[in-house]
Design brief:
The protein has helices at about 10-20, 30-40, 90-100, 120-135, 180-185, 280-285, 300-305, 310-330; strands at about 1-5, 25-30, 45-50, 65-70, 105-110, 135-145, 155-165, 195, 215, 255-260, 260-265. The protein has about 350 residues and is of the alpha/beta class. The chain has 2 domains: about 1-170 and about 310-330, 3-Layer(aba) Sandwich (Rossmann fold); about 180-305, DNA Methylase, subunit A, domain 2 (DNA Methylase, Chain A, domain 2, Alpha-Beta Complex), CATH 3.90.120. The strands form 3 sheets. Strands 3-2-1-4-5-7-6 form a 7-stranded mixed sheet, with helices on both faces. The chain has a two-stranded parallel sheet with strand order 8-9. It is globular and about 65 Å long.
Length: about 350
Amino acid sequence: MKVVSFFAGAGGLDLGFEKAGFDVIWANEYDKVIWETYEKNHKQTTLDRRSIVDIKSDEVPECDGIIGGPPCQSWSEAGALRGINDKRGQLFFDFIRILEAKQPKFFLAENVSGMLLPRHKDALENIKEMFRNAGYELSFQLLNACDYNVPQDRKRVFFVGIRKDLGFKFEFPNITYPKVDLLTTIGDLKENAVPALEKNHTNQMSCVIPNHEYMIGGFSTMFMSRNRVRKWDEQSFTIQAGGRHAPIHPQAPTMELVEKDKRKFVEGQEHLYRRLSVRECARIQTFPDDFIFYYSKVADAYKMIGNAVPVNFGNFMAECIKQQIEECEKNKGKVISKECAEI
């Protein structure tokens, strides 16, 4: 099945769908910092570099599915919480505009859990109604990536719509997978990480392993307000889009409590408290090692990776959608199984 992708970013969701056998024929990404990374890692996909607001529906290729993660900053619990009143939140409307015009078999949209906050209730219900009015049976659920072969706590909401004439509604499977810990994920990367250059410019020429460099610089009062170290046998904190907020490497001891909302690094062990490298964050986001990120400033790499849908998370959703649509077509509209193949 052919798929087009909006707000593609580095293409974590796209790669997950490709692994499930979908053909991502066309993608849209407006951030010029990401273009080189996307195009060099998705060589079979045509990349449209315009803002979605400037794209007419007839310029989008015919497809079986539309996928994407409209910008989430305006919905984030850590952000200003402006939601649909922020122009970035309103990009949902353009996603729906093109969806309604193209009428593919399905769509998938992913966003942050902050959408579920009470203050966004009316806006969220409006978006759901717009998806339904566009001609789709809508399914909506909050999932945690840690349950789907992704080694981090990462709660995200998924909208999945099936075109009404197909005669069924997507069912989120009631299955999860064993947790994957940090030792399994990045244990072999403990050595060889290098610090970024001055002003956090890339030091790629010194990386034995591509992208295995980490941001330098101090830690904010907010960062030091709680423990930022997960142990080797645990899963990572959420990989965020800001490098300064990257979790601390598990080689370091748990940060000591000084007083309420104030922690410190263990004295004498300060050298162990480095941020996770770009490559380590990519591993935790389940990007393969042959997926190379291109940038001049290390902060841009963290942003690309932190904004991505983890590849395994996207792959799980793609496998489920594919199986249910195929069963529907095979059984003329009746979905027999609500489970999906293991990834």
